[in-house]
Design goal:
There is one protein chain. By secondary structure, this protein is of the alpha/beta class. The protein has one domain: Spore Coat Polysaccharide Biosynthesis Protein SpsA, Chain A (Alpha-Beta Complex). The protein is 46% helix and 18% strand. The protein contains nine helices and seven strands. A seven-stranded mixed beta sheet has the order 3-2-1-4-6-5-7, sandwiched between helices. Helix 5 packs parallel to helix 7 and helix 5 runs parallel beside helix 8. The two termini are 28 Å apart.
């Protein structure tokens, strides 16, 4: 039986996190908030939200900002320690449609060993440059998996089966920042984890705060694609065999 928890990485989203958390808790799921070295204002907000949650919310605090990936990984570790089997990852800025949570959880129950990966349906609020730039990553992911199994590797709204994630974390350094979502999904696919793509509405963003650092994060993403490409080369036989199975 699946035992799911929501993990929300938070870095200075004090204006949006209250609404996001309320939308999550409305579905009766417990939540782990990971404070990724936020400012005092955001840290105080998170403490207050956790205290008011009637023990539905646990707060994990990282002393220094390590990036989205580092925060999610900390949430995974906490979830594993608490005995959860699945983690639903949700962003803190309000871009994800929490009304879709029951669909994701239901799919995870039907397919407990698969990642349920959000496939974004954007509205007019999406920055056009960001929308077009996503397609470059899509192409690299298709190359690095030798498949079209992953429709979108950048959407952070997804359910992970925790056991293969913890196994991967124990033997592989994963992207700590904006390279995280793609890195972990490709590597889980390499490990034989199926990916089920679930459409979900995405709106940009509730509080207007983006932590994407154009030069540094693009450099990290480029390095990640390069590393994944060379990792794919030695996996070609296995990936081709998977396509035939």
């Amino acid at each position: 039986m699946n035992k799911s928890v929501v993990v929300i990485p938070v870095y200075d989203h004090e204006h949006a996190i209250g609404s996001v958390l309320a939308a999550v808790l409305a579905h009766g799921l417990p939540c782990i908030l990971v404070d990724d070295g936020s400012s005092a204002a955001c840290a105080d907000k998170l403490v207050a939200l956790a205290a008011a949650s009637l023990q539905q919310v646990q707060l994990v605090r990282l002393e220094k900002n390590g990036g989205k990936g580092a925060a999610v990984l900390a949430g995974f570790r906490q979830a594993a320690q608490l005995g959860y089997t699945h983690v639903l990852q949700v962003d803190a800025d309000g871009q994800h449609c929490c009304a879709d949570i029951p669909q994701f959880i239901a799919l995870a129950s039907l397919h407990p060993h698969a990642v349920i990966a959000g496939y974004p349906l954007f509205d007019a609020s999406v920055p056009k440059l960001r929308l077009y730039a996503r397609y470059l990553t899509h192409v690299w992911v298709w190359i690095n998996t030798l498949s079209l199994a992953i429709k979108d590797s950048m959407c952070g709204f997804r359910v992970y089966p925790l056991a293969p994630v913890i196994s991967l974390m124990q033997r592989q350094h994963l992207g700590a920042r904006m390279n995280f979502d793609t890195d972990i999904l490709v590597r889980l696919y390499w490990d034989g984890v199926d990916v089920i793509n679930q459409p979900t509405r995405v709106t940009y963003p509730l509080d207007g705060v983006s932590h994407f650092r154009v030069w540094l994060d693009n450099l990290l993403i480029t390095r990640m694609h390069t590393q994944l490409f060379f990792g794919m080369l030695r996996r070609i036989p296995a990936l081709l065999a998977r396509r035939r199975s």
